[in-house]
Structures are given as C-alpha cells and as structure tokens.
Amino acid sequence: MFQTFGDGADPSTGAQRLGRLRAELARIGVDGFIVPRADEYQGEYVPPSAERLAWLTGFTGSAGLAVVLADEAAVFVDGRYTTQVRRQVDTEAFSPVAIAETKPSVWLQERLTSGMKIGFDPRLHTRSEVQRFEAACRKADAELIALDANPLDAVWDDRPEPPLAEVVLYPEHLAGRSASDKIRALQGVLRDKGAAAAVLTATDSVAWLFNIRGSDIPHTPVTLANALVFADGRPALFVDSRKLTNEVRDALETIADVADPSTLQTRLADLGSAGATVLVDPDQTPEVYVRSVEAAGGTVLENQDPVVPQKAVKTVAEIGGSRAAHQRDGVALVRFLHWLDRQETGFSEIEAVKALETFRSETGALKEISFDTISGAGEHGAIVHYRVTERTDRRIETGELFLIDSGGQYLDGTTDVTRTVPFGAPSDEMKVRFTQVLKGHIQIAMARFPDGTSGAQLDALARIALWRTGHDFDHGTGHGVGAYLSVHEGPQRISKLGHAALKPGMIVSNEPGYYRPDHYGIRIENLVLVTPAAPIPGGEREMLGFETLTLAPIDRRLILPRLLAPAEIAWLDCYHLRVQGALAGSLDPQERAWLIEATRPIVG
C-alpha cells in the first residue's frame, strides 16, 4: 500500500509541545515564532522530517501556518481545511483561524507591541511571505528576526532523518524533450530578462528541467534538490551524492555540474560578489537564498520561476502519455466502481481506499498514488481534503453519499479523479445539489474561449447553477496537473485567483463541488486538456476548448434530468458513450455489463 492510515499527529500533545517551544523561544530571546507547513523546497508535500506544523499542532493538512506568541497561538488554514483543523487541533492551545477572513500578518500585527521580536526560519519562508510579516512588524514598531537555527527543531526529540531516495533518469521518449534542449531554452529566457542566473528551488521544476525523478516525498516523484541555471555556461545541480548511482551521476555530469546542497549559499554569495543579477521567484524561493545574493552585493530580479510556464505546456509525448495513463486508470476506476456497487452498506472508508489502490496496482504500471485518497462517507465527504485514518475510519450507511477523490502516478502520466456515489435512496436535496454540481462541471467541459482567457474568467461557469439557489463551494474549480510530476502545478488553474492564460497543452482539473457540513459532500472531477477548438460557424475569432482526459462514468442515480439543459444531456451522453467505447474491451463480462448499464443515455 502506498497510503497509510496512521494519524501522523496527536492533538492531545499540542499543549505540551507548545509549552516546550515557548520555553525555547524565551531561552533564545524572541517573543514569538512563525511555523509554516513548508520545507526548504516550498512544495505541497514535505518529507516526515519537515512536518513541523503537524508535530506541533496536530493539523495534517497540506497548507497552513501557525503563529506562536507567549500567551496566544493560532493555526491559519484555507477553506479546504476549516472543518478538519477543528477536529485535529487542541483548540484550547491553538485558535483555528480562516485565512480568507484574517491574514496571519494582520492577526500578528494586532497583537504586537513596540519592541517585540518575532523569529522565523529563513529557509522555510519565501521572500513574499517575509515581506508581509516585515510590514506588519514595522507598523507595530516590532522586529522580524531571521534565526540561524529553528527553535522547533531543538525541541523535536524524535524528528525523522531526511530522505535519501535514489534519483532516476526520466526517459526522453516520455518527456518529449532532452534536458539539454530545455536548459538551452531556459538560458534564452534568462538572457532576455537580463539575468546572469536563476535559482530553482521547486523540486518539480528541477525534475522537469533535468529529466530526473525520485521518491523523496510521498506521492510526488521528485528528489529534494536545487539548481542554479546560468545564462551562459553549465548549470549546477545541488543534490546529495548519496542519491546518485554511478550511471545517473555520469548522465547528469554531461549536462551539469553536480554539487553538494550545502554549497548553494556560497555559490549565490559568489554571484552576489561579482555584481550579478540573479532571478528568483519571490513566491517560491526561500528567503535565505535571496539574502545570500543581496548581502554579497548582487541584484535580485524577482520573477516567476522560468521553468513553470514551459513545464505547464505539455509536449506531444507528454500529452500522449497522459491519454494512455487515463485509459489505464479508467479501467481500474471502472473495476473499482463495479466492486463498490456490489458492496452492501457497511464497508469502511479504509476498505475502499485499499480496494481502489489494488485495482490500480493490478494494471502493472502504478508507480505511486498521486495523493492520499480522499475517501469520505457521509459527513466525512463534507471535509474537502479529508484523510481517513484508523481513528476516523467509519462505515457507510444506507441513505448516505460516498465521495472518493484519488489519483495514480504512472510513468507516462498523473491522474486525479473524483466520483460521488449514493448508497440506498438519495434524498431529493442530494439529487438537486449533485445535478447543480454536474451542470457546473459540464459548463466548464463545454466552454469555448479565446486565446488569453484565464481560469479566473471561467470559474463562474462552474458555480452559476449553485449560485442561483444560494449555494457555493470554498475551493477553486480546477488546478494544473503535471506529467508524472506534481498533481498540483501552476501557473494554470480555474479559480477566482487563476490569472494565468490557459494555453493549448495545459492540463487542468474540472472539479466543482458542494459540501453540507456534518451531512455530505459532492464533487465531480475530471482532468481536461486545453486544445484548439473546432471553428464556430460565423465566429470571428479562433477559440480554445477542453478535451476531457478522465474516463469514468458519472453516477446517473444522482442526476435529475429535468434540471439539465438539452446540450448538457447531450454532452453527458456523448461522454458516457466515449467512456464505454474506450474501456469496455479491457473488462471482464460482469464489469463490462455493469459499465454498459452505468453509461446508458439519460432519459429525460
């Protein structure tokens, strides 16, 4: 099993650990400390050795931050985790705060007094984050202090060792471009921007650029490594040599200098001493590296990680690989949904996770899951990023909805799909909400839009049906997806904050939802590929659209056809016909019969 079901953190320890951290802060002479859910690479997932926020507070979500003062502490989370944080954290020790309502810097500023010193670890915060906290401290005549050592690490007695997983080369026929070609293109970008070098700290950027993969962190096939790419000359890859076989080292040394990670700050300081301009992504690069350049006299050019826009537009090989991965994954999904349909109510959330992973493993191609499966029965489905544990595991009962959001990592592609399934007779309310969510999903799938359109401009299409009855969902409609890389990548996303233009070759999720706290959750998710759209008769502009990649039936038992427009019914029938045609030949007779029934046309 790639997924485990331990809690990973115990909320009952929060007060005791908080007390130990406060004692350490008093010892080193600071009045507060900021604890992000981040490591030196600023990725979504971190290794166990970097799970500082979970160790301190009990909160295990993939995004969050704590601020600890001498007499008060708070944990800040976004809309995905407002329910989860209250279940995991000792609220007597830590106050849960919705980040959409109160920014951490604002919360801190309101509690600062003149002369206070707030510490932070400059390896774990980006330039943008630091600037926000610095502004808050200045307004209160307080001081934000970069600490040489992390005080939380000093009291974390049983902290795990950092990972040392082996680096592997990613085949060029799957990448579609050689690492040398990618490096040359990146060097051209740096010259155009007037930068002597760029520091890359995002592990998926490093993996993509050098055509390497790893397994240092759960579910994302990357290695913990940094890189310096120079406008002229060989790049430098900073990676622990213990992760490299002779074969991999020899291959990498044909295109780059391989160096120890401990030397990166020295190399940046050398660039600074030479008066060089170094490009850094202020939303990605840890503050410690930015200060290394500035302190030595160099110039920092703040710009988006230059790998990001190149990585987002998939090559022909990556697109072909994604289609193949989704076909394979679709067979596993149908086999799972068929299995699910034969279960009596009473099966558990963990049993469902194990079954789905087994079906994916039986493809013979599964390398990992792309994230911890969200397996939510009843009220757990309303927790957007619910992670089932042995403590929270529950069985589904008659009349409930079951939401399962999962994905696979295959060598040729990354998948992410959500389906919602009823057990017993769903209520009329459930059917109405499901159909409203489906309408939003279909509107995104059918969208036609001109070049330059952003996800923010499309996001409302997924919500209008819910808005009309006074409902909504508190997460983006879609996120970018990598090619055997991170299941969440930018810059593309369908969201109120998704301002990057959607371009052909980008992959993004389409996943509107609805969540009634303490009752049920609904989400329908497919991955879609941005493509040129067929010409529209009488149209004046060329348009883009989406090709749906995910292949899995959408549960017809929850659909109210009277709420669907004819074009929406036509889309669903065509999609189901495509699913049936693509997958039926790979199923056994019972599974095939089930699929044919599950994908028959809507009668309406």
Please describe what this structure looks like.
The protein has 604 residues and is α+β, with helices and mostly antiparallel strands. The chain has three domains: 145 residues, Creatine Amidinohydrolase, Chain A, domain 1 (3-Layer(aba) Sandwich); 137 residues, Creatine Amidinohydrolase, Chain A, domain 1, CATH 3.40.350.10; 283 residues, Alpha-Beta Complex (Creatine Amidinohydrolase), CATH 3.90.230.10. 34% of the residues lie in helices and 19% in strands. It is built from 20 helices and 28 strands. A six-stranded mixed beta sheet has the order 4-3-2-1-5-6. Helix 11 runs parallel beside helix 12. It is globular, with a radius of gyration of 25 Å.
Q: What is the CA-atom radius of gyration, in angstroms?
A: 25 Å
Domains counted in the coordinates: how many? 3
The average pLDDT is: 96
Helicity, as a percent range = 25-40%
**How many beta strands in the DSSP annotation?**
28
Q: CATH fold name of the largest domain, please? A: Creatine Amidinohydrolase
Per DSSP, the total helix count is 20
Shape type: globular
Helix- and strand-based class? alpha+beta
CATH second-level architecture of the largest domain: Alpha-Beta Complex
Strand order of the largest sheet: 4-3-2-1-5-6
Under CATH at level 1, the class of the largest domain stands as: Alpha Beta
| CATH superfamily membership of the largest domain | Creatinase/methionine aminopeptidase superfamily
Sequence stretches where pLDDT stays below 50 over 5 or more residues: none
Distance between the termini: 42 Å
Tell me the fraction of residues in β-strands, as a range.
Answer: 15-25%
